[in-house]
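We include the entry.

. . .
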Amino acid sequence: MLATRLSSLTQRFILMGLSCLLLAGCAAKEVPEVHGPQYFYDKGTQALAKKRYLEAIENFQRLVSNFPGSALVSDAQYQLAESYYDMEDFVNAVFEYQRLIDTYPSSEWADEAAFQIGEAFFEQRRRPELDQSETYEALTAYRRFLEDHPSSPMVSVAQERIVACRERLAKKEFLGAQLYHRQGHLEAARMSYDQLLLSFPDTDWYLQGLAHLGLLERDEGGLEAARLHWQQVVDNTQDDELRAQVRGWLTDLDTP
């Protein structure tokens, strides 16, 4: 009887020992593998290349958050911003580009980040008749970029973007003036045309505004002022259609 009990206890101890060994083995397998910054950077760039943006964002964020002293951290910060930009989340893209500039001002990516802030706002521009807050933000960003990075290879593109932004803003002013004119709000129309001529003399909309200011002058009886405006348009425009239209107005003005 005693021998039987001892045998049973022995079996229990053996089973308990085996269970502990099995549990220890399972626990050992469950210990997560520790990865360094290069791992997360490579995973992020691979995901970004395959347009798996959320996966890329996760890996770049883990590198930036967990390895702030890594030599790869500014690279990861830039690629994080690029991931948001490529998925057209321009609000977060601007935030991450600006974070790179603020946190790593000496980074090799600083000039590209500054340029990309302008690009992110540029991509958010609305139709000319709508609010142009994003256009103004883009214009400000490009001008700051030119001031801070005058030797960057993106300078010529930024200058082209500035021209495009100013054309959009000039068109917004012109459309507003036209609307006031059509509605009979002549004083408001005059103020808008004057603002267009004052603020955007280097745009294609300057002579359009001058031509329509001539129409307003004519409607208010200022025939000589209208004639002067229209003659200036005819003498300076490169737009054949506009020139022909304004010449027609001049002819009508001289017809009794």
